[in-house]
Amino acid sequence: MPQLSLPDISKKMKDIDFVMFTTRTQGGELAARPMSNNGDVEYDGDSWFFALDDARVVSDIRQDAKVGLSMQGNKGLLGKPPLFLSIEGQAELIREKAAFEEHWTHDMDRWAKQGADTPGLVLIKVHATRVHYWDGEDEGEIVV
Prior knowledge:
- With 144 residues, the chain is of the alpha+beta class.
- The chain has one domain (6-143): Pnp Oxidase, Chain A (Roll), CATH 2.30.110.10.
- It has 3 helices and 7 strands.
- The chain has helices at residues 6-13, 56-63, 97-103, and strands at 18-24, 30-36, 46-52, 66-72, 83-94, 121-135, 138-143.
- Strands 1, 2, 3, 4, 5, 6 and 7 form a 7-stranded antiparallel beta sheet that branches.
- The protein is globular.
C-alpha cells in the first residue's frame, strides 16, 4: 500500500470522536484521558479540544506542551482491521472567543452551559509533528 497522506488520514478520521489525550504531569509521569474532538476532523495536522482552565490537562500543558493523541477508527476498509493512529504534537491553549465559536458544536452545551461564553473555557489546539498509523498490515509515518 502506498504511504497515506494527511487528506487520506482526514477521511478515515471522520468517524472517530474520542481520543486518548496524553500529557506529562508535574512529577514527570504520563497521564491520559479520553477527550472528544467533537467531530472537528477536517484534519490538516491540527486537532481541537475544549476544556476548563482548572482541568488537569490544561495545567499539564502549561508546563509541557508536548502531547500525544491515540485513536482507533471503527471501520476497516475492504474487510481490513480499523485504522489506529498515534499522534505526537505541540499543544497550544487558546482563550479567544472567536476561536471558540469557530470550533463549537452543540454537543459541547452539555459541559459548557453558557456556550462559548462559559467562564474558564479553554480551546486546546494540538498541532501534529508526527502521525504514525496502522491499517491492517500496513503502517507508516507522516512528519508534519
